[in-house]
Every structure is written in C-alpha cells, then in structure tokens.
Amino acid sequence: MSVTTTPVSQSRFLQRIQGVPTETTPVWLMRQAGRYMPEYRALRARHTLLEMIRQPELAAEVTLQPVSAFDLDAAIIFSDILPPLEGMGLELSFVKGEGPVIHNPVRTAGDIAALRVPDPHESMQGTLEAIRMVRPELDARGLPLIGFAGAPFTLACYAVEGGKSRYHENARILMLSEDALWDQLMTKLATTAGEFLLAQAEAGANVLNIFDTWVGELAPHHYEQRVLPYVRQMIDIAAGAGKPIILFGVGNGPLLEAMGSSGVDVIGVDWRIDLRIARRRLGPDLVLQGNLDPVALLAPWDVLRREIDAVLAQAKGDERFIFNLGHGVLPATPVDNVRRLIEYVHEAR
Amino acid sequence: MSVTTTPVSQSRFLQRIQGVPTETTPVWLMRQAGRYMPEYRALRARHTLLEMIRQPELAAEVTLQPVSAFDLDAAIIFSDILPPLEGMGLELSFVKGEGPVIHNPVRTAGDIAALRVPDPHESMQGTLEAIRMVRPELDARGLPLIGFAGAPFTLACYAVEGGKSRYHENARILMLSEDALWDQLMTKLATTAGEFLLAQAEAGANVLNIFDTWVGELAPHHYEQRVLPYVRQMIDIAAGAGKPIILFGVGNGPLLEAMGSSGVDVIGVDWRIDLRIARRRLGPDLVLQGNLDPVALLAPWDVLRREIDAVLAQAKGDERFIFNLGHGVLPATPVDNVRRLIEYVHEAR
Prior knowledge:
seven-stranded parallel sheet; alpha/beta; TIM Barrel; homodimer; 9 strands; globular
C-alpha cells in the first residue's frame, strides 16, 4: 500500500511563505528538538551536545524526533549557532550549568586578524551530511527542512565575551569604539555564516533561518548603523541559494522596520510585541512568524489554550502568518502541551 | 561668608518635572552611588550591602557621595528594591557572585497568605532615617532627593523565584494561571511598596521613583491585564504624598502607552528606544527621562561624547526631558567619564 504524500514544495509552510493561501496555519517551534523530549534526553545521556551536533547520524536522529512525535509543518536541522565559530579558529565547548564557552575569545586586533573564514563543506561537514541524511524521510512526509545560522552580532558577542554575558559590554565597546576592527570581525562572521547557509541550502535545506539572539540589547541607531549592514552581507551571500530566508531576534520589537528592510522573506518576532503592531510596522508583504510566550507552554492546558487564542486573534485574517513561539521551547515544557498546541493551531479557523 | 543657594523647589530637576522651562538639561544617573566610585568601594570593603542600606549613617553617606563628587541635579537615597520584602516575612541576603537570594521564596497559596503588609516606619526605618539625615546637606546644595521602591511585578519575580532568574517562569506561570493568588500577592506587594514610597515622601523625598526592572519580559497584553492594575494601586497610594512620580522599566519600549496611562509624571526609558519615538507614543505632557546606553560610559571619551550627542539630538527641543542612563551605571565605569558626562550635558544647548 502506498501513501500519496504532498510534495515538499506544496507544503503549507512553503506555500505560506510564497504567499499562496493555505487554509491551515503552519506551525513549527524554535528548539522543537530538545531537552523537553524524552527521546532527546535518552540520546543526550550518552553523548555530549557537540557530539550530537557533529555526528551526522545523531543530528539526523534528533532532527527527526519532533516531526515523528508531532504534526509539525517543518523540521529544523539539529545544531547550534556556535559550531561554525570552531572553523574560524575558536575553541568551543558546552560547560554544564554554564552554557557555551569560547576558550580563546577574540580580544585584540591580532585575534581578529587571525580568524579564518572557513569552507563550510569542511568545517560544518557533519551538519551538511545530517541535512542530506534527513532529506529522504522528510520528502516521504512532505516536510520542508529549515537550515540555520547565527547572525554576526550574536556570534560576535560570544566570540568576544567568550560565553554568555549579561551586557555583552566588550563586544559592544568594540562596536562603538573600533570601526575598522568591528568591520573586520563582522565581515568575517557574516561571510562565514552566510556561506554556511548557502551550503545548507545546497545540501537540501528548503528555508534558511538567521538567529540574532542578542540583537534586542542594542539601541536602534546602533543596530542600523553597526549591525544591519553585516546582516545584509550575510543575507546577500545566502540569497544566492534562492531559498526563503527567516530573520529572528529576541526582543526585536524596536528593530522591526530595520529588520524588515534587510531583504528577508519572513520576520520572526518574540512575544513582547503584539502581532498587529508588528504587521503594521512591517507592511503587508513580509511573512510574520511568532510569537507565543514559551512560558505559556509550562501552564495547564486551559491557560495555554487561552494564550494560543490570544496569538491567533492577533493574527486573525493574516494570510502571511506562521505560528511559532517567541523564543525556544523551554526544557521543562510538558510534551503533551506541545502536541496539543500543534493540533489546536491546525484546527483553529 | 554665606553662599546663596537656590531652594530645592527651584532646582532644575523639579522645574523640568513641573513643566517650567529651564535652560540647562538636568541630569542624574540610575545607580549613581555605586561600585564604580572609590569612596563607595572603601565603605563596601568594611560593610555588607544590607548593612549599608540598613544603617542610616552609612546609607546617608553613600547617598551623598555622588552629589559631592559630581554636579548632579538630584540625589537618590541609597537602598535597593528588595529590603521592603523583609518586612513582609521574606529572608533576604546578597550572595557574592550570585546577587540577591530570598531564602524562603513564595511558592504556595499558604506562602502568599502568610505575607505581611508591614508598616514601613518599622520595616524600613533605616532608609527613612537616612532620608531625614541627608536633607540638611541637600537643602544646603539646593538638591532634590529621589526616594524609590520596586514595582510589584519585579518584586513578585524575586519573591517567587527566590533570586535572579532568566525567564521568571514560576512568577509568570502564577500570573497566567492563578488569578486569585496573583491578585493577593500583587496587592500585598503594591501596598507595601506604595506605602513605603509615601513614607519616604513624608521623611523628605521630593520625587518618588518606581523601578520595574523585569517588566520588559512581558507581552504587552499581559502587562496591561495582569501587572498595570497593581502598578496603579501602588501609584494611587504613593500619590497621596503629592510628589512627582517617575516610572522606569528595563526594556519598556513596547509598554510605553500602558505605562504612560498609569498616572505618573515622568517615564524613564531604556536605551533601546529612540527618544523621538518614545515622545510621540507618550504624548506631549509626560516628562521623558533617559536613555544613554550604560555601556557607552565604558568607552573612550570621544566615543562617549558622540553617544551623548546622539541622545541629546533625539531630545532636541524637548522641554520635558531629563538626562539619565537607560539603566544603572556599570561597576567598571571610569569615574572621569561620569564627571565629563554631567558637565557635557549641562553645557549642551
């Protein structure tokens, strides 16, 4: 018995992005593969995070876990925004309780000069191979695959600070004070990340997502003058693949006009902006993605449903809307809430 | 020889708040008394933070340190937003490297029911006494004094989480899921904080500042429905003193209309919003305070000056503007940058 599957190009997710009306709202979740899933935790108990990212079989398995468990409208390749920094010459590890650590942070002109712009086919070979490995299964399910990379400002924060930091002050002083060094650093990061996106598209990703996690820390005029040009560099490179591009940043409400002018197809917004205001500020053409508060997924179902309703009400009648969270799924999220969320969004009219 | 001093009521700071034109832009800085000052560090080396807050002589001394060192337009009483929680029954300490810790966080209906609404004249006696102690010196200098308290949402985050937390998810789940408990908790916090502000005004504070540090984490509809009513409760109580009230929140850009409707006189904004946009959204009547990125104070003077110029350009022609940072002075800030900032703002036309 053969099951007829809609081809990936006819998937709700790609259709919405291309402006083709779909009756059902497509939904995927940032960090949809993660610690909230028992399948994930079982694998994670036996491997480090970097092993799970670097070994294609493991990354492919984790990528498929949520699309096997739930009726999601897209898969996103399992990885992290930081591994591309390793190919640039930075030593990365994930330390329990501390998060990512760069052991040789970029602090001097010499450090920046020494950064390489690696060939992603070598430096990110595992992720590209994982993309090729999940394609047949996703094709069988008619599901598009999202590839992704970090945006240059967020990557610069990690590279300069050497890990998480509250204010990213070293990166931001560099940004404010050292025009030539900042340009050199950001150009290298934008090129590395842009070429990695391009390689992911060539390997089989249907959509490319740029994550600019820390960009909400910036004054709008700093974003426009000192960050957006490098986001555009990255987009110009990635756009060579001819695939739709999503741009997301935590706390990006104040930056929407600038982000909307970057040349991408989809803007992801976090939960701290009303979707109607976001739509008004972005204009009618861009696709809007978001923005349920991830904390709502920790609440009982009746509360979660009310919160989903609030997001759907804000997006009512918007033909260019994709349902997502306003940030990644939190580790304490009950699996059942994720399942019900996805069903509920699909059934909503 | 006697020096004629302008009375406090004629100070630039109070005049601006009252809508009286002043030629010079008044300036004060959030956390203007703090670790960046050697005088502060010398005292801090011999006392715990809670001692410095609780002992009136110490709090008075620290309050006066920055107004002695710099030509500031206001003093702010040295304290923290959390000590009022002690009078409610919470056990507070400041742990090195970890920040504030509440040893008995509020987790159950019983915990919330057990919280007291203390008389600030008993529970915050030290701060009120410090206010009385600094008055003569400030009167001699013609300087107004700012009293302050934390807003109920931010206090709830600390009370429920037991300290700092990235997502404040326990507090926010309570907010979303437990209407009656949330109302009980927030009413107690708003009453405690409001009555403390009132007592500070009676002790000699000329202006009252409400700090809502974590409010930028909220979706606007959650702020309006579940937080703003309690901010209004607090303001209603504090307004009994007849003193101007400032409301500030980190990341409050998306909440400006709601905050502006709260009944306060001054809205403080962080650096992530252009002052012209903030003015447009707040309307012409409220006083606007902000919003230099505190990280700019870590940069060399020519960079800092350019950043001050950018803020002043955004506020150009705005008769209802008070210069401040967009958040507190960072510990690594060079003292000389603070001095030059204040001189520069005063000389700017």
